[in-house]
From TrEMBL:
Lineage: Eukaryota, Viridiplantae, Streptophyta, Embryophyta, Tracheophyta
Designated name of the protein: Aspartic proteinase 39-like isoform X1
UniProt xrefs under PANTHER family: ASPARTYL PROTEASES, EUKARYOTIC ASPARTYL PROTEASE FAMILY PROTEIN
Organism for this UniProt entry: Phoenix dactylifera (Date palm)
Active-site residues, record numbering mapped to chain: 91, 307
Listed SUPFAM superfamilies: Acid proteases
Length: 477
């Protein structure tokens, strides 16, 4: 679903904490692994996501396929005392954690994913409390004191997303439970006090029962995000990384100081609401594309968006056409056809042997290698379709957009260092492990990718693999 409020998504205030220690692990599951679906669902997933993370950008799906509403990965967490289980989408662009509240008027009652939905009740938790409009969390979220606020008034929120859906409610503080990394391949239970949204009203897709979840776990850059709260309390580094394995599924989603593998970085463009970096050039099989020098910067949409929550990759037409011409110059005799608006062709050999590698070159000499099996996906036997999308076919707001999604970022460890405002990646076996340093003790722990077998009690009819979100404490535990 990816409802990132990154550009024109709006957070409104209508009415008018201390934090516990927190390091830990969340199990995260892939929605589509080993589950055959129409290729139109790839585009419908992206258009729903872009409608929210890019708001004014329109990436139409061409009227085919059913839209997907929950994004690719969701985690299981515990909230409250005694704790109850909630399933929340993991979203690096959302700025808050929020879950559907017991007073919700349009929250989904069931999910087609086969999971049991739970409504959060602040009164049902011994540790839950309302956040008033004069508390620091509220005033910092809204940039100052709230006019007309009194200590008994709740801190309310309303988020309007670009596709017309919305969530509204009020902020609460309660205990969030997860697992703390305590050694090599080992975790122990942990919890933290976190302020989050209690969703009282949902509209649009957020109110739909189709593939519904209990809420969203945001890992955005805002001070209201969960990682920002924990970092401000000195419990975690404001650094996270993910490694998504599209071959075997699963991977790792980690918070902490990743020391192995080593990752080279490039600066994030300042004052951008999402993760934008400066793309310098595109290389195909050793030859650089001849592109306009100003193509990589376009007004307010500076740079290239790195978004692991988007399935495909999007380029302006001025880059898309030269790129495809260079790629298919290696196979001039192919016959193309359109399948649900995707450019497809029949090919019986290995795409890695028959098509060129692509290299994206970024500021600070960081490169991103994209191989044929990354940008060409198999639709049926001997039929492949192109994962690059032409921004020129989109609305005026999307036609000049560079965005690299899962098909380009898969099988790489991607590191987001918000402390130093850099992002980077390196090729890595995402089914193996990484090493994270505990900055307090200097210990280095090995963290593995995991999976949930088909016999797991939360199986939703397919083999779903597990990712880990690891928080390593660096001051106190």
């Amino acid at each position: 679903m990816g409802p990132r409020r990154r550009l024109l998504s709006l957070l409104f205030f209508f009415s008018f904490a201390p934090f516990a220690r927190a390091t830990g692990v969340f199990p995260v599951r892939h929605k589509y692994l080993h589950h055959k679906r129409p290729i139109a669902d790839l585009r419908s997933h992206d258009v729903r996501r872009h409608g929210r993370i890019l708001s004014a950008v329109d990436l139409p799906i061409g009227g085919v396929g059913l839209p997907t509403d929950t994004g690719l990965y969701f985690a299981e967490i515990g909230i409250g005392t005694p704790p109850k289980t909630y399933y929340v989408q993991v979203d690096t662009g959302s700025d808050i954690l929020w879950v559907n509240c017991v007073t919700c008027t349009r929250c989904p009652k069931k999910s087609d994913l086969g999971i049991e939905l739970t409504l959060y009740d602040p009164k049902g938790s011994h540790s839950g409390s309302l956040v008033s409009c004069n508390e620091n969390f509220c005033t910092s979220t809204y940039g100052g004191e709230i006019e007309g606020c009194s200590p008994n008034n709740p801190c309310q929120y309303s988020v309007m997303y670009g596709d017309g859906s919305s969530t509204a409610g009020y902020f609460v503080t309660d205990v969030v439970e997860y697992n703390q990394v305590s050694g090599n391949h080992r975790t122990t239970p942990a919890n933290a006090s976190v302020s989050f949204g209690c969703g009282a009203q949902q509209s649009g897709d957020l109110g739909s029962s189709s593939e519904a979840l209990d809420g969203i776990l945001g890992f955005g850059q805002s001070n209201s995000s969960m990682i920002s709260q924990l970092a401000a309390a000195g419990r975690v580094r404001k650094v996270f990384a993910h490694c998504l394995d599209t071959v075997k599924g699963g991977g790792i989603f980690a918070l902490g100081n990743v020391v192995e593998p080593k990752v080279k970085t490039t600066p994030l463009i300042p004052n951008m609401p999402h993760y934008n970096v400066n793309l310098r050039a595109i290389e195909v099989a050793g030859a650089f594309l001849r592109l306009p020098t100003d193509l990589f910067e376009n007004g307010d949409k500076k740079g290239t968006i790195i978004d692991s929550g988007t399935t495909l990759s999007y380029l302006p037409e001025a880059a898309y056409k030269p790129l495809l011409n260079a790629i298919f110059s290696y196979q001039p005799n192919l016959s193309f056809r359109t399948i649900q608006d995707f450019l497809c062709f029949r090919y019986s050999g290995s795409v890695d042997d028959g098509f060129p590698d692509i290299v994206f070159h970024f500021e600070n000499s960081l490169s991103l290698n994209v191989y044929p099996h990354d940008y060409l996906f198999q639709n049926e036997d001997d039929v492949y379709c192109v994962g690059w999308q032409n921004g020129g076919m989109q609305s005026k707001d999307g036609k000049d957009m560079f965005l690299l999604g899962d098909l380009a970022l898969s099988n790489k460890l991607v590191l987001y260092d918000l402390e130093n405002q850099v992002i980077g990646w390196t090729e890595h076996n995402c089914s193996s492990s990484i090493q994270i340093k505990d900055d307090k003790t200097g210990a280095i722990f090995t963290v593995d990718a995991h999976n949930i077998s088909s016999a797991h009690r939360l199986e939703v009819g397919m083999s779903i693999l597990l990712l880990l979100i690891i928080m390593i404490c660096y001051l106190s535990c």
